[in-house]
Amino acid sequence: MKQHTLPALLALSLLVGCSSSEEIVPDVPPSELYSEAQVSLQSGNWLTAIEQLEALDSRYPFGAYSEQVQLDLIYAYYKNDDLALGLATIERFTRLNPTHEKIDWVLYMRGLTHMAQDRNFMHDLLNMDRNDRDPEPVKAAFKDFKRLLERYPNSPYAEDAEMRMFALKNRLAEYDLATADFYLRREAWIAAINRCQELQKTYPDTEAARKSLAIQLEAYQQLGLQEAIERTTELMVLNPI
């Protein structure tokens, strides 16, 4: 008997442990749980709001609050820096509700979430220059905001999206400038020149484009290309920093 008692007790304790861990959010009516989630959202208690909204989403996936719960989760994930979950929820919502009345907001939030992926905690904390970090999230955000402006030009989020695109364009230009400088320091003169010219063509109205002329000039000087040196010097006079 004793040999069977211990395993039975262990199994019982595991069952009790599992049941208690699953009850993070009490089993209450959906209307009550949704109201509690709204209170958590309004007070900025993002983690609690996420737990409550996720509980609603899993228990009542086709309930009356289904669409709004997903919209609230997109916002809560963004505020709580759960960016991967936010993008996954945006993808799910867009796939299931392509003509929803708030789809412009969803696209706007996708842009914001991609922008947030570009943030670097130490960069924000120490105000460090990290323009050399991977710009893929920036490119994705720029694409999201551009799509918003093209599809929903009268959206209340269009103006802010346009301003963010301007900032993102400068961020991408600074990345190209950092890359050109990297090539210059490695004495890869042709690569530096090519990156500078690509920057000037893609982002001609940025400060980074004007700064790239100095890198381009030095590379031409190292190669001894006199005609290109004179042409770049003239461009620097016409486009002062």
What is the correct CATH architecture of one domain? Answer: Alpha Horseshoe
Parts with pLDDT < 50 across at least 5 consecutive residues: 1-22
> If helices are DSSP runs of H or I spanning 4 or more residues, what is the number of helices?
12
Using the coordinates above, name the CATH class of one domain.
Answer: Mainly Alpha
Name of the CATH homologous superfamily of one domain: Tetratricopeptide repeat domain
- What is the mean pLDDT? 88
Number of strands: 0
* Broad structural category: mainly alpha
Series of H and E elements: HHHHHHHHHHHH
Strand content: under 5%
Helix fraction? over 70%
Q: What's the N-to-C terminus distance?
A: 88 Å
Bulk shape: elongated
Main beta sheet strand tally, sense and closure: none
Rg calc: 26 Å
CATH topology (level 3) name of one domain = Serine Threonine Protein Phosphatase 5, Tetratricopeptide repeat
